[in-house]
Amino acid sequence: MNIKDTPWFESKPLLEHPKYYVFEDKYPVTKGHLLFVPKEDTELHIRECFLAAYEYGLDLFKKEYCDGFNVGQNVGVAAGQTVMWPHIHMIPRRDGDCQDPRGGVRGVIAEKQKY
Fold this sequence. Notes:
There is one protein chain. By secondary structure, the protein is of the alpha+beta class. It has one domain (3-98): HIT family, subunit A (2-Layer Sandwich), CATH 3.30.428.10. It has helices at residues 43-62, 110-113, and strands spanning 15-16, 20-24, 34-38, 68-72, 88-93. Strands 1-2-3-5-4 form a 5-stranded antiparallel sheet, covered by helices on one side. The protein starts with 14 loop residues before the first strand and ends with a helix. The relative contact order is 0.17.
């Protein structure tokens, strides 16, 4: 797959960096849900995306735009990946956006979230 063949290129990126793009998620989980998409499917570009997503989320948190954030990546069909180009989700979280957020990313397997 080529990055230009991904569904994100139906819309204009919010930001273009030399190694990645930032797009609004088409099916946002919360307000401000963004995708950091590497321009190349290489470890270097993916690391840059992950770090940028984390730093952006941290900046939002420090500015009190959100009460927390999740950064994550689905790799492979078994992990829920539907677009087979690497991309990192940055999801701002707010108090009360779900009934019980404890366990966070463990919720990808619902019965394992609570411990």
